[in-house]
Specification:
Elements (H helix, E strand, L loop, with lengths): L6 H8 L7 H4 L9 E5 L2 E4 L4 E4 L2 H4 L8 H11 L15 H12 L6 E5 L2 H18 L7 E5 L8 H6 L3 H4 L10 E3 L20 H4 L5 H13 L3 E6 L3 E2 L5 E2 L4 H12 L2 E5 L23 E4 L11 E5 L1 H4 L22 H16 L3 H14 L9 E7 L2 E6 L15 H11 L2 E2 L6 E4 L7 H18 L3
Parallel strand pairs: 3-15, 5-6, 5-7, 7-10, 10-11
Antiparallel strand pairs: 1-2, 2-3, 4-12, 8-9, 11-12, 13-14, 14-16
The structure holds pyridoxal-5'-phosphate (PLP).
Pyridoxal-5'-phosphate binds next to helix 6.
Length: 463
Amino acid sequence: MNQASSNAELDRDFLWHPFTQMRDWNAAGQEPVVIVEGEGALLWDENGREFLDGNSSIWTNLHGHRRPEIDRAIIGQLGRIAHSSFLGLTNDLAPRLARELIEWLRLEGGFRVFLSDDGSTAVEAGLKMIFQARAQRGETHRTQFISLAQGYHGDTVGAMSAGHSEVFHRTYRPLLFETTEVMSPACYRCPFNRGTPERGVDARASRKCHWECIGQLESALDALGETASALVMEPRVQGAGGMAMHPEGYLARAAELCCERGVWLMLDEVLTGFGRTGEMFAFQKENVVPDVVALAKGMSGGYLPIAATVAAPEIFDAFLGDFSERKTFFHGHSYSGNQLGCAASLASLEIFKSEHTPAHLQSSAKTLAELSARFWDHPNVGDVRHEGMICAVEIVRDFATREAFPFTDRIGARICEAAKKSGLLTRPIGDVLVLMPPYCSTEPQLRKMVEALCGAIGEVLPV
Ligand SMILES: Cc1ncc(COP(=O)(O)O)c(C=O)c1O
């Protein structure tokens, strides 16, 4: 019998963490932070150390930890039932949640909500729905998905196929189906951006280009012709692709190109959904009407795994038929429609009505943007970009050329490790530092997050 007893020892002996080099994790002298409590934007570890939750617990938390309304909703639901099957049954929460989601999405006219567990399953279900709908509509030639370079849609095989992350997906490539990759419209690293870096100016604002990204998308769609089925993309912000932010207007232009050609638009709002970009959903900033939307992460306010794939009527209708026709969507998950997740999600949506309204989110986002202007003071900060309650700080070796540090220098990871000592928890994407605070974060808390990260940059890269 293993004698380990502390949480850290048990973790080291029995667990395998996501996206973690376990040799480093288990290395002598590495003590994991063992989180035992949280409230609002704060987390505490088992030694009573306090931390700011700088990335909203991997981009999930919205209104803060231990939010009384959500706590009460879950506890109340536990007093009735935690979970019952959603196959051939329904319950008294999922239908209400579906109606609320459709209202918030402003996608009326027959859109349907398919419930699952997490971002990857929401995307996977969307891809399969689209594929099957095309076939059942007699459009068997429309099999091809188009997606953006550096896109990330989750870790299941379909979601990886639509993704294009060299680091995450390279090993699995032989397992994946082919999708057409088009360039990412991320201005900071765009080869067509002739604008030179200017301190204090977001690369989207200083860009000089001819919308080559849209030109490339148009060419790809034309080349695919009638074989093009759907464009799959993260609207406005590509999260795991380095918080790459798109110029205003790309989404609307892309949607128009798709619409003209009968190509469906599937938006992955797993990260951007539920207020993160300052509007309830990122696509609402550009007034587009998607055909499929994938939602997860913040859907339950960051409490429980629940996700939704929302599909347009022309997709849903393609599945209707006589039982013998086998047009059913043969896809599902054991915890679809889970009552605890639905209760948490409904309670979270209520909070948006009174407290974290778009006006409140935009005001918090403005504060975050103003505070984070000081990142520009460091010579190795190449870009500081914002979209709502997301702030990304890209660290470079050379400001003028945007040259990156070697991957093996682990600059981003080292900065975040240093920030931890000052009480800030966040996780970088390569050398892109991310601040994505819960919406309840106060001005002093936002200030502390920025200060901790600035201090950590200075510690790792002394001037
Ligand atoms: C845009 C996007 N889509 C999908 C996913 C996958 O979500 P999950 O980790 O819940 O499977 C993520 C996760 O980071 C994401 O950022």
